[in-house]
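CORE FACILITY INTAKE
Project code: CF-77B
Contact: R.S. (postdoc)
Sample description: multi-component assembly, two entities in total
Requested service: structural model of the whole complex
Turnaround: standard
Below are the sequence entries exactly as provided by the requester. Do not edit them.
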Amino acid sequence: DTAVSQTPKYLVTQMGNDKSIKCEQNLGHDTMYWYKQDSKKFLKIMFSYNNKELIINETVPNRFSPKSPDKAHLNLHINSLELGDSAVYFCASSLATGDLRNEQFFGPGTRLTVL
Amino acid sequence: GENVGLHLPTLSVQEGDNSIINCAYSNSASDYFIWYKQESGKGPQFIIDIRSNMDKRQGQRVTVLLNKTVKHLSLQIAATQPGDSAVYFCAESPQGGKLIFGQGTELSVKP
């Protein structure tokens, strides 16, 4: 019954490592997103994909590379992790970009801690 | 620039009272607004939305008011319950698909 799922839920790693976070949605949505939530709970969009094509890229360092093998999956790969990357990362999906009703469904989040 | 903010970072209410959470937005081009609720350790959950051609929308125990003149959005929760304790975010959409979130207000309900 899980609509938007993310793995892992927690990720603790050393600075300089490369890590990936996976996201899957079973809602049949066309658009998927990655958000970063900082320690003050501020949520900011990072990327958006529509049918496997990148449509939003919000001045995110190129160490972050999203990959969408199909429209149900949007993975986030992070190279050379830095302390400032520590945050909670949320995946979300919605029916379609440009749809007037643009409710986004969020996953449970992945808490990334860089030591 | 992007500036969807909340007037109060924290709000404490007594169980059974009504809660009002306020939000200011800056982009006049925004035509869609959403309120999300985020419980501890979980992802944001949709509560209610409103389009710019409306000024009020009601759901179950929640009402969203939109004042485009002063670019203000509010969420009213009737008969607040302990289960309503969470962080509430408003978000605006100046273009289809991109949501700009406000800072969040933490609602605490006292029994």
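Facility notes:
- Chain B has a mean pLDDT of 90.
- Chain B touches chain A at residues 32, 34, 36, 38, 41-46, 49, 51, 87, 89, 93, 96-101, 103-104 (CB under 8 Å).
Invoice: internal transfer
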